[in-house]
Amino acid sequence: MRIMRIGLFVLTLVAARAFANLQLNFPSTKLGSGPNNVVGNISSDAVVMIDGVDQPGRLAANVLFEGGSPLAVSLVWAYDQLYEDIIAEGAFVSLRDLKVYLTCPEGSPQLTYSRGANNQYAYNIGTPFPTNLPSSMPVFATLECPLPPLCEVSESSLDFGTAAPGTPLELTFSISNIGGGTLEGEVTEACDAYSVTNGVYSLSAGQSQTVSVTFQSASTGSFPCTLATGGDCDGVTLAAEVELAPICQLSTAAIDLGLLLPDEIANGAFTITNLGGGTLSGTASMDCPGFAFTDLVAYSLGAGQSQTISFDFLSATPGQYTCAIDASSSCGHVQVLAEVQPAPQCQVSASALDFGTVQPDSPAEQTLTITNSGGHTLSGALSESCPDFQVVGGSSYNLDAGQSQNFVLRFQATATDEYTCLLDTGGDCEDVTLTAVVDPLPACDVSVAALDFGTVLPNIVATRTFTITNLGGGTLAGAVLESCAAFAVSNGAYSLAAGQSQTVTVNFQSSGAGDYTCTLDTGGSCSDIEMQGVVELSPACQLSVGSLDFGTAAPGTPVTRTFSITNTGGGLMEGVVTEDCATYSVANGSYSLTTGQSHVVTVTFQSADEGSFPCQLETGSDCAALPLTALVDNPPVCQLSTTGLDFGTLLAGSTVERSFSITNVGGGVLAGAMAETCPAYSVANGTYALGAGESQTVTVTFHSEVPGSFPCVLDTDSGCPDLGLTAVVASLQLFTGEQSACGTVDVLGHLPGSETGFVQDWENGEIGLALSSMGGGTLTVSVLVDDGTSVTVWSGTVGSGIWEAAESGVDLADWFTEDVTLYLEVSDGAGTWNSGGVECLWDLNFLAVEEDARPLAFLLHEAAPNPFNPATHLVLDLPEPDHARVLVRDLQGRQVVVLLDGELSAGRHNLTWQPGQVASGTYFVTLECRQGVQVRKVLFLK
User: Fold this and answer.
1) How high is the pLDDT of residue 90?
2) What is the C-alpha separation between 915 and 889, in angstroms, rounded?
3) For residues 269 and 287, what is the distance between their CA atoms, to the nearest angstrom?
4) Which residues of 481-507 are buried (b: 16+ CB within 10 A; e: fewer)?
5) Lowest mean pLDDT among 504-513, 634-643, 688-697, 774-783
6) Chain CA centroid to CA 16, Å
7) pTM of the model
8) Is the peptide bond before 870 cis (omega within 30 degrees of 0)?
9) Higher-confidence residue: 893 or 412?
10) Which residues lie below 8 Å from residue 156, measured CB to CB, with a gap of 6+?
11) Could you please report the per-residue DSSP string of 334-379?
């Protein structure tokens, strides 16, 4: 910002010791003294005499007098070449007709000071100033110049900050005239994103004007600009940023910490990134045993910024652990898994391996198995120290709990000898001793690699043979061994010289159906034989019914029944269902069924004649015949006198009866038995057998000790329509063991925030206050004293269940100070109830209670019961009003149900979760509000 200041030009002539000093003063400008100190708008016209000779011309200089002792005078020139050449030290200079002009920068006004020819002054340059100058010369003259307009802008720049696309922002600055005259101009912008309001100005001295600048853009990015403010005013630079709203991204939705040893610390981390604009803020939270954050969990991220949330896990107890970390700020959850297993334990299948006797340069192989019979991971590698023994393939292992790995060891040597080697199995595993003998060996040849016994019936023997031959030298000895009960070996032991052979017989037999496989160990170095056989049962027919009864039908009316045929045996069962009665017809009667397959057959009966129509179906194959029966007659038709019974709104414990009639408006006999499915209802005279036109009255009784709504469906049987039953219990009642046994009432001195309510304890357990309202109005609970005093202890809305005056706010100690007779009175939208004749002398025991028992901490209490079935109760404390959401999530972090989403007052609040059809398992109940987030784990067991 540039500020121009113009002050007063003051010319002062001071008489001191006849003539002392001539000063030029500028209030805001510091002038020095000495040669060439020229002021541009101050001039003098003079005739200069040097050494008695007039020197014409204009002297443009300041006349400055500098003090000294004695006073010395010097003439300070802005001299031209003429005077520079003439004036010298000691010259006599005389000034006459001196005129000094002072002119304002704007050209007016003008002040002229003149000195006539009779006031000539002369001096020798370099000599002391004369002391006898006349004292009649003017002392001073002052010139005041009017100030021109001068602009001052209040702000050199305006920063609109960061805005969302399309959002307008407005800032202001002011233009002031801190000079004189009138300051005029117009503020203009050259950028599309900015607009100016009240930009034209015309300001007198001291006036200001506020200018508004609005920024708005639908595009993102930076928007620099410069406002031209007009006149001599400085410009104003503008700056603004447009960013998108914050968008949260989690680097992962799940973290698997893998297998850990007991008391081993595992570290995990995930990253929260703002993929949008603005600022993404929140706090990560979790409440899981063994898990803990290791660093900051609160974050505030600008566009593109990220923050890593780190945590540790530690547990001494083996098992699987899960935790749902709530990343907050609508970021979702990160599911963490960990498994703690005991230390690995090595188990080697053999402490020694004997490769037997082999021929020179012939390889022999053995298999060694290493198993991790402990937990975690068992790692190591096999290493042999003898060149004749080698590990074939990979020698290293990395085994999880319960895993095994087989290793093939090969022996091969040229020289005939006995060989021994120690195999290092690595890690904590025991070493294995390897032995082998090199000598010419017999060579076994088995005539077949597999034996197939085909398909046989149960208990039938199938026989197969194969040959073992010694194609090498020495003696080939061994025994063929079977390991499966369905296979048996004959002539299995052998001892064969070079070139000899032996035939071995194998029998297959089983009483159970199925596929059978077995590996036959042929002994020694002979290869195994894979065997297979199938035992298949004979077909067996099973009908789904023993007979088909088509009931009573009207003449000409078709009636359809179905039954199924199943092959419960083996093989293939085929047949055709046939009928030999004209009134019955069969659809889909042919079948071809393998083991376990079923086939549905449809039979239709129709006759125009009345009477009885027995018949018998031939079901084919080995299936039994199926008897058919039908009766043609006018069928019974059921008619009920009403479609439903409404028992109205009752008090708890009341018993109400309603009746209806059932009538057979058709023919035949209408028979059946009614059954109620709800425990609050009972049916009298519900069994019926009604001929044509007969009726029967049925009575339904309702009784419930529990308040609530009781819908029910009465099954009237025999094709009659179901009957809807409804009742509402809106009870306001006092539960007592005996009317006269009222017990002792402990009355709280101050009730706000009390969890126990108006009556804290009934010592004898014989009396208790249970209130519920189904009337839909406000429930008011009052205590009536025998002297006519009434105290309202609670007023509010409740549902079914036990009432507790948790926030009545009444100090009963102010009302009752001694034993009195009390009555309870309750009113709601359904009416008013009081204890009436129940007059009991209640001993009042006043209890001391804190002045304010309202919860002081933000807390979601542990659920109770837990584990639970069918429902669990939750209590949450809010120290101040808040918007609260209570969610239930499963182990995968998926939302199951929202229990609460709304504004709550400060204090204690109760919730109930009844999962219903939700699967058994562990769930997490989360309380979210402005005051924070808390999580509780619950276990639902069916």
Assistant:
1) 54
2) 12
3) 16
4) ebeeebbebeebebebeeeeebebebe
5) 774-783
6) 94
7) 0.28
8) yes
9) 412
10) 1, 234, 236, 237
11) EEEEEEE-PPP-EEES-SEEEEEEE-TT--EEEEEEEEE-SSSEEE
